[in-house]
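In response to reviewer comment 3 from the previous cycle, which asked for concrete evidence that the modeling workflow produces usable outputs, we include below a single protein chain processed end to end. The sequence was submitted unchanged, and the resulting structure tokens are shown without manual editing.
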Amino acid sequence: MPSNFNVRSAAGYERLMGRWSRLLAEPFIRFAGVADGERILDVGCGTGSLTFALPKAAAIGEIAAFDFSPVFVEEAQRRNTDPRITIRQGDATAIPFEDGRFDRALSLLVLHFVPEADQAVAEMRRVVRPGGVVAAAVWDHLGGMSGMRMLWDTAAAIDEGAQAPRSRYCFQPMTGPGEMRRSFGAQGLRDVTESSLTIRMDYENFADYWEPISAGEGPIGQYVAGLDPPRQDRLREALRTAYEAGRPDGPRSFAATAWACRGIAP
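The workflow returned the following structure tokens.
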């Protein structure tokens, strides 16, 4: 299975995670580095959060982007107005480009949804030139996603059925400290560096937090959408209490931290 991220609609993904991945794209680009004239591959482009941020960082020569989901590919193609950018469907474990074509292969919030993540890293290394850069970032699900952990911990406290998906969420591959670094090293990348990147997830009110989750996108949405109406109502009200934390409904801000890793192809 090339990806285990369930996609219902591009608009639903944008409200759940796209707005935050766009915020993460800028510090990730600074971490990964870009330079004028480079050819860059965006592995798992989604709706284009990284793809469309790259030309703002440098005078990029070419950006090739692909994603496994046809829903994401269609939306990214619809948004694209830059002739330097091409977007297609593809598999991160069998990247549809020849060896050594790119200066950098970048992946934002993808590897933890690829069951064969080590193979995806190997493929990213394959398609960059010697001396080229491979870089990726994934959310720190266990310790760095306070807003999402609030949901999972609340759900697990009131629904025994939430405990298994919570564990899968918290310990997805590549989301723990050192996991990407070890994978990059095992695939032969050198000078491997791992760091963390933090943004803020700012919500206008509880509805702004809850509605994208209840729409059914991603692992969290899949769990919530699978609840019968009484259990979903119970979770919503318990989560409202956690979100409000004894104060009137309104804006809330949650820290969100991602692990970032980069290495150089030999």
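The chain has a mean pLDDT of 95. We consider this sufficient to address the reviewer's concern, and the full set will be provided in the supplementary archive.
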